[in-house]
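User: what does the whole thing look like in 3D?
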Amino acid sequence: MWIKTTPRPREISQLPNSAIPVTLVSIKVACSQCSLRELCLSEGLSKEELAKLDGLVGTRRKLRRGQHLYRAGDPFEALYAVRTGFFKTDVLIEDGRDQVTGFQMTGEILGMDGISTEAHSCNAVALEDSEVCLIPFAQLEHLSREIKALQHNFNKVMSRELVRDQGLMMLLGTMRAEERLAAFLLNMSQRFTLRGYSPAEFHLRMTREEIGSYLGLKLETVSRAFSRFQEEGYIAVQQKHIRILDIEGLRQLLNHRNI
Amino acid sequence: MWIKTTPRPREISQLPNSAIPVTLVSIKVACSQCSLRELCLSEGLSKEELAKLDGLVGTRRKLRRGQHLYRAGDPFEALYAVRTGFFKTDVLIEDGRDQVTGFQMTGEILGMDGISTEAHSCNAVALEDSEVCLIPFAQLEHLSREIKALQHNFNKVMSRELVRDQGLMMLLGTMRAEERLAAFLLNMSQRFTLRGYSPAEFHLRMTREEIGSYLGLKLETVSRAFSRFQEEGYIAVQQKHIRILDIEGLRQLLNHRNI
DNA sequence: GAGTCGTTTTGATCCACATCAATACACACG
DNA sequence: CGTGTGTATTGATGTGGATCAAAACGACTC
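Assistant: Here's the predicted 3D structure for the full assembly of 518 residues, as structure tokens:
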């Protein structure tokens, strides 16, 4: 049984900021000082190159929970690196149907969908109070022609997104409900781990409906799968708070198609 | 009723080759002479820049129907531009499940999934005898640092792929079987049109099973939907040969969710 | 022209998830 | 502290597409 007093995992918004001294100079962001380097674009850059990237990533933007970072159709000008917070992207078509296409957390890059047509093709919404670094795209391209590593990093980020999409297609095309949710939880766990949080305990920022939309399921089905996982002892659920009790069990649920 | 003697649409393999004089010089391909410029990477490049791109796109590779262009896990070295023919990409997981993630035709670029990890994440198979242009990736990055338009074109191609994936997620996540097939047919029609073929009559290169895998359906469901479309007068089907009789009807089937 | 194999079509049945509906819970606000 | 609102859970029922099965068709070989 899940105990109410279990300490919550450290919230993203409580990320140690000590690495970013808030001086007049560094208010305009500094990739070189950013703790998210390895997830972002600045990996493998020399000091001088980092300084140039710092010059490019000019401003930050704060968003309140529920605010749009951009909307489908908005002119594309910049990419956004999530500094703190949590986002979802979604697409919607005329008849009202919509689909969440992704959840983005610290260190991940938003907006690449806009490059092809100079306009964004989806909406990006903050699921909690968040902050992003603005990366003017024309300048990024310019600097990428100068800095080989930056160019390569950016190509890798785009490609990583393509691979992620492949995985999601696989999920949507071939998996049953519980497999989808298991895959989702394992993915979340992995991403939290990468960011230094507990792999086993985290707080979901999205509703059951948003999870369902992302996984191609109805919210009731998501809720039932959560309950089922809890009954089976895989996880402990308390609303949006998740504790993974048997990560190996979840993995097996994914791999060994239990026909 | 469909008449057997209806002339088939011009096959891709019958593309006029006159634009590519087969001389000793041009055997090593020439983007500058390629009729697929606007689909590919060479749009907006000056004469000198085109010449440099020609130097990069060194060799072609011919594949017989059924041959793999690359397999998941293969080291990533180059991108491939489809010159003639038709490909599918698919992912498969341990337990035997697999999913077709895309069909690629003339002028489209394959292999971008490999950039992120230096290894391909999916398989690419020729669905008919085909020919690709080999684009060594390191050299493409090198030249992209020199040629602004090439860099931008490449970024656009990657981004276009991201947007395509979004559409596919939408399809897999929210559409019913007949909507999926309608979307598929309209997409095929549009892509054939772009290449100068009839929007209304074409030859599918893939099996029902491959269509099903791509659309997240079983082959029987695909077959039934085809039959249904024929009964309703939307299309005429004869095995892999498709004639669209009521393109507007198909569009409406997609947009106006007929609850 | 008979025989084989892969593909497609069509029918009968089943089941996973959607849908509909009611209740419970958490959180914000007067 | 009650009251409202959005979110989550749980139950009962319906259905779209999967599954199982068989037949038809086309392409290829001998």
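In plain terms: Residues 207-209, 219-220, 222-224, 226-227, 239 of chain B lie near DNA strand C (CB under 10 Å from a C1'). The domain at 12-163 of chain B is CATH 2.60.120.10 (Jelly Rolls).
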